[in-house]
Amino acid sequence: MGNSALKAHLETAQKTGVFQLTGKGLSEFPEDLQKLASNLRTIDLSNNKIEALPPLVGNFSVLKSLSLNHNKLTVLPEELCKLKKLEILHLNNNQLMQLPAAFGQLAALKTLSLSGNKFRTVPVQLCRLRHLDVVDLSRNQIQSVPDTVGELQAIELNLNQNQISQISSQISHCPRLKVLRLEENCLELSVLPQSILSDSQISLLAVEGNLFEIKKLRELEGYDKYMERFTATKKKFA
After folding, report:
1. Bridge partner residues of 66 (DSSP)
2. Mean pLDDT by 10 residues, the chain (238 residues)
3. What InterPro entries does the record tag this protein with (predicted)?
């Protein structure tokens, strides 16, 4: 892509606050973007070949949405954590294994998509995010859900298509968790914490494609309590 094309994109972005350049084979984050660091609200660089984000990404002080799906990112810079206004972060289909230590400083973050990466555990940094609504960690290599998950503030947690065979009962303590997706994992019925059914806020539990028949779930103690929440939620959205 020539300089003139990039220039045209930058001029449009200056007016709209939106920079979108997808599927152009970019191998790096366009440095010229920093000229717009103080007025860009949305950046979408999905479907490129970007391997790393430069530290200057931390300068985009009003950025609300950042999308880098389908790139080649293996690590995120600590500077990303300076984006105090960031609400939406889409990083599906990269090669990430962990989040920066300071990730919990993204105080405004509401939606985080990390599907199709190489995470082996639920990152503990997520528990510091107080406004998080949706976390998508589907299609990773997560094998267990640790005790720290009990502090997660998310409303929806998607862990479909991992290799989860252990899940902490602390997940029942998540104060806002309504939707828990665990489809196509390696869960035995005996390791599914009963408290998810009897003693949590969860009103949609998706567990198809594990190592037990769904009808067996109905025999567990607490299933009727879960169904009460399930039905009440359905009525609310009907």
Report:
1. 43, 89
2. 79 94 95 94 98 97 98 98 98 98 98 98 96 98 97 98 98 97 98 97 97 95 96 82
3. Leu-rich_rpt, Leu-rich_rpt_typical-subtyp, LRR_dom_sf, LRR_domain-containing
Would you say 171 and 196 are in contact if contact means Cβ atoms under 8 Å apart?
A: yes
pLDDT at 2: 65
Whole-prediction pTM: 0.95
β-strand pairing of 65-67 with 166-167: unpaired
Query: Residue 84: left (phi > 0), alpha (psi -120 to 50), or beta?
Result: alpha
Copy the structure tokens of residue 217.
Answer: 């779930």
Q: Rounded to whole angstroms, how far apart are CA atoms 108 and 49?
A: 28
Beta bridge partners of 144: 166
Confirm if 56 and 78 have CB atoms less than 8 A apart.
no
